[in-house]
């Protein structure tokens, strides 16, 4: 008959702190030396130094101009009767009246319309790219979208004038002038803005579409849901924060655009960015030299509101799609 081995009792040597066997038994439980913690704290404490250039850039590039705009918007200009630097609300009052308020409303209308159209058109285009089995097609579309989203200003205006202007090649080929077409209008400017807003929407919504899990579609199909029902009850509710965030981003991009509209339509379509340029060039009444700063402050307020809406939507979509 075999007997189970009896447990060996713990000897005092196992807990001896003076050396011998006890020292070897407790060697694996020793804490790290203080020098290691000190070095780690030094490395972690100095990591904030890497953010100093970013903060300096932010202060110099955004902070100081913003402070100058706010101060100038609420003070008189140097050509005022009583001298410059006096507190006044005339600049703000003038910026929300007459032609300047019309320009602000026109900019808001143009930005909202183009952002909405780009969102509606860009979503199916991005979905077609994401679901494509051809990797080269996805890479080509995303690369082209990155280029076209940053293509604006004078080159874009010249391209459309040469193509769809009054003497453009497509205009003459299709006799668009006979049908009342003109590029130098609100409709023409809308088409031009869509040229760079749609690619921007494709770039913005593609990561969200990639975050849609295949299991969700399979579960919907297993429950006999059609494709329309899947998009209506599953995909679109999940993508809604990303879509709204993309819309807000496109709105801000269109609202801040200046060079393309200035080169193509001039003063035909009133825009707040064009009004600021006129005020900076001196095309204002005497004593209203700081009116451009007041108009700029209005644009900053709109931009802050846009970011206040965009950031929570971005965080909410990240919770679902991460």
Descriptive notes:
By secondary structure, this protein is mainly α. It is 69% helix and 0% strand. The chain is built from 14 helices and no strands. It has helices at residues 20-25, 34-45, 52-73, 90-95, 98-130, 135-149, 154-164, 169-174, 186-210, 214-222, 227-256, 259-264, 272-280, 291-321. Helix 5 (98-130) packs across helix 11, helix 5 (98-130) packs across helix 13 (272-280) and helix 6 (135-149) packs across helix 9 (186-210). It is globular, with a radius of gyration of 31 Å.
In short:
The chain is mainly α.
Structural class of the secondary elements? mainly alpha
The helix content is: 55-70%
Strand content: under 5%
Averaging pLDDT over every residue, what do you get?
Answer: 81
Distance separating the two termini? 63 Å
Work out the radius of gyration.
31 Å
Q: Major sheet, described briefly?
A: none
Summarize the helix and strand pattern as letters: HHHHHHHHHHHHHH
Number of strands: 0
pLDDT < 50 stretches: 1-30
Number of helices: 14
| Shape category | globular
